[in-house]
Amino acid sequence: MRRPEDLDTVRESYDRVADAYVEMVETTGLGDIRTHPWLQASVDAFAASVAGLGPVLDVGCGPGLVTAYLAERGLDVTGVDLSPRMVEHARRLFPTCSFQVASATDLDLADATYGGLLGWWSLFNLPRDVLPEVLASFARALVPGGRLLVATHVGDDDLERTEAYGGVPVRWTTHQWRPEQLASLLEAANLAVVADLRLPAEPPIGPTVVMCAARR
Ligand SMILES: C[S@@+](CC[C@H](N)C(=O)[O-])C[C@H]1O[C@@H](n2cnc3c(N)ncnc32)[C@H](O)[C@@H]1O
Predict the structure, then answer these.
(1) Is the CB of 122 under 6 A from ligand 1?
(2) Of 9, 14, 175, 181, whose CB has the highest number of CB atoms within 10 Å?
(3) Distance between CA atoms of 64 and 91, rounded to whole angstroms?
(4) Residue 1 belongs to a domain
(5) 51 alpha carbon to ligand 1 midpoint, in Å?
(6) Which domain holds residue 111?
(7) Pairing status of strand 98-101 against strand 168-175
(8) pLDDT value for 84
């Protein structure tokens, strides 16, 4: 799989924002699905649909809230994230859960192993020509019928971010996707879309799509 040219810059940026991100979640509830009934319901439906299918990998888990949420629901789940600082927070906040540092582009996933995979607000930094390869690797790693859950920013733009989470300097690109483009990428990766939830902008978050797809 191709390594994104900006991967080191993106990692350093998330390392820099990790403390502010955790503080934001803790003080405002933003980024915590339990404060957002539609996002929570999506993760609940995903959890129900992968129960009994095999282990689950939360790719781009950040400080681990969704990983821990799924573990509480009885799933055998591991979180993995590009940013060592994010993973440090995840291990501190959820010491009984399992977390690793790695990029979505460097996971070397065994074929037909996972019941579920998540790219929960964590795939939008992948360059447009790399995301299809990542989705194909996710599809191969799922057992037949296993599910991938994606949440991401909707739009057509490649936004160059220079600050995030309260003014922390960062350098990354947020690649927005139109839901129909994302659906096409999933289908091309041998995944069948089973749910497609559109959420309008709700400042400070822009329009969102949550999509779940099953391995054929
Ligand atoms: C907005 S945060 C979301 C974190 C978590 N999924 C959540 O909802 O709380 C985006 C996360 O994606 C991670 N990330 C970005 N690019 C990644 C990559 N190539 N591989 C793995 N994680 C990545 C970042 O380090 C960051 O923790």
Answers:
(1) yes
(2) 14
(3) 8
(4) no
(5) 24
(6) 7-215
(7) unpaired
(8) 98
| pLDDT computed for residue 1 by the predictor | 87
- Measured from the Cα of 122, ligand 1's closest atom is 12
Please check whether residue 186 is in contact with residue 213, taking contact to mean a CB–CB distance below 8 angstroms.
yes
pLDDT digits over 36-50, tens only? 999 999 999 999 999
193 Cα–ligand 1 center, Å: 22
- Is 148 contained in some domain? yes
Q: How many structural domains compose the chain?
A: 1
Q: Is 81 in the pocket of ligand 1 (CB under 6 A)?
A: yes
Asked whether residue 76 is assigned to any structural domain, the reply reads: yes
Exposed/middle/buried for residue 55 (C-beta within 10 Å: 0-12, 13-18, 19+) = middle
d(CA 111, CA 78): 17
Query: What CATH number does the domain containing 75 carry?
Result: 3.40.50.150
Residue numbers of the chain with a pLDDT score lower than 50: none
> Which token pair is 22?
């955790």
Alpha carbon 184 to chain centroid, angstroms: 18
Closest among 133, 48, 61 to 101, alpha carbons compared? 61
Quickly count: other Cβ atoms within 10 Å of residue 198's Cβ: 11
Q: Is 2 within the bounds of a domain?
A: no
